[in-house]
């Protein structure tokens, strides 16, 4: 058990704010992130704020694909202190493809800030990311950005968010002035005016504000903490990341009501964040971050208690002990030993492949957290190796990268070349680039006849017979769980109808046997 006094523990945990920013590309996520870090006097900067120009090259050059395409492919964490709280901002990938990485990152946060472009309203990718948050009832704070430009009317924007996402909206601030005359905000919760210049009451902007506030307070829902915590209501902030308007409103609100670490559901019970015993969930693995070291970092979110450097932990998937000698607050190329970390914090744990995504670490309890799934891939490709001499190396590299979650790997039971499965095509580019850069293996992709993959479960004898009959369509995944590959949705449906004893799964919980 951790030796932290209970009061210290609960105070430390209560001041953690672990969140992500979600948005459609170009809505202003990078700008807002930079402003937030600046406001928070960031104690650490990570490599994956998609900084432009020189900053991008210097911070993220370990991943050439990221540099070439100007996108942030991997996510990392930024920690800073503001208003007495410790903020952990987890960066979500900014590219168009939905990836499992995004989903997993969102499993590790307690709230999300949804950035919307004031002229464009809700866009595709915002909606998609929002749906992921909703699946987990993650409380959402909305930041309507670019109010310094021509924008939609605030009432319309609030209405659009409410109706298109089926989410109650409550204005937390109100814009003072519009477009070029946007000078600040009025905080409806604290009743304070924050403007970049003094405005007399006779200023047309103040007159407009008074009129709109009257209407807003009469017609729109008030902030309701319970509904927010349950993910049913979003407080809405107006601002301009570029002009640094509304950014501290947002941070102050996160300090005052941003959720502290949530309870985490495990297979056997729900773990409360302020339980004294430490538990942690691995939600991301990243290998070869430093090409000179060939190390592998598991990003673990502390779910309860306090982690102290040197602790001996139980790795519940294997039942083995695991000593955490060098937990790190990990930021792109900068690492700093984490002497202690509390529930809500994210630490990097260097290891040699022992830790996998979805793994749970505890002080002694046999516990497995749920909620880190694998999704059935939507794209399947056979890997083509140009240099046959490198077959062994390829096998090892593919396994490592699949363990890291870059792609899913399926080994056909008939011994054919491995098949990789991805949810978005960008993952294939990442795989190809990393195999070349980190392992010196050049590969191509060939089409496969298959378009769908499903994990199968059922009575052992029935699975065996099924696998024999369908040998050319059977594969094993990384954990040696059987997977059926179908050539079409029609074929999949027919196979399901013909095999009522077998269940076909399109989601697999990692780290937990599917039963
Ligand atoms: P993203 O990470 O969501 O993709 O968006 P990013 O912050 O990169 O912002 C996209 C563009 O919108 C950038 O312009 C940025 O300067 C601009 N922007 C962000 N916030 C605001 C805001 O509050 N007001 C206004 N008017 N613009 C904003 P760019 O021309 O693409 O890049 P840059 O040349 O400015 O770096």
Major beta sheet summary:
8 strands, antiparallel
What is the CATH C-level name of the largest domain? Alpha Beta
Q: What is the CA-based Rg, rounded?
A: 24 Å
Integer count of domains: 3
GO cellular component, one term: cytosol
Keywords: Cytoplasm, GTP-binding, Nucleotide-binding, Protein biosynthesis
Binding site for GTP: 23-30, 91-95, 145-148
Subcellular location: Cytoplasm
What are the key terms here?
eight-stranded antiparallel β-sheet; binds guanosine-5',3'-tetraphosphate; single chain; 515 residues; 3 domains; alpha+beta; Rossmann fold; 14 helices; Alpha-Beta Plaits
Overview of the structural elements:
This protein is of the alpha+beta class and 515 residues long. It is built from 14 helices and 32 strands. It starts with 5 loop residues before the first helix and ends in a 6-residue tail after the last strand. The strands form 8 sheets. It has an 8-stranded antiparallel sheet. Strand 11 and strand 12 (270-271) form a beta hairpin. The protein folds into 3 domains: 22-72 and 112-258, Rossmann fold (3-Layer(aba) Sandwich); 265-370, 3-Layer(aba) Sandwich (Rossmann fold); 373-510, Alpha-Beta Plaits (2-Layer Sandwich). Mean pLDDT is 86; it is low at 43-75 and 511-515. Guanosine-5',3'-tetraphosphate (G4P) binds at residues 23, 25-31, 50, 52, 94, 145-146, 148-149, 240-242. InterPro entries: EF-G-like_DII (IPR053905), EFG_III/V (IPR035647), G_TR_CS (IPR031157), P-loop_NTPase (IPR027417), PrfC (IPR004548), RF3_C (IPR032090), RF3_dom_3_sf (IPR038467), Small_GTP-bd (IPR005225). Residues 14-262 form the Tr-type G domain.
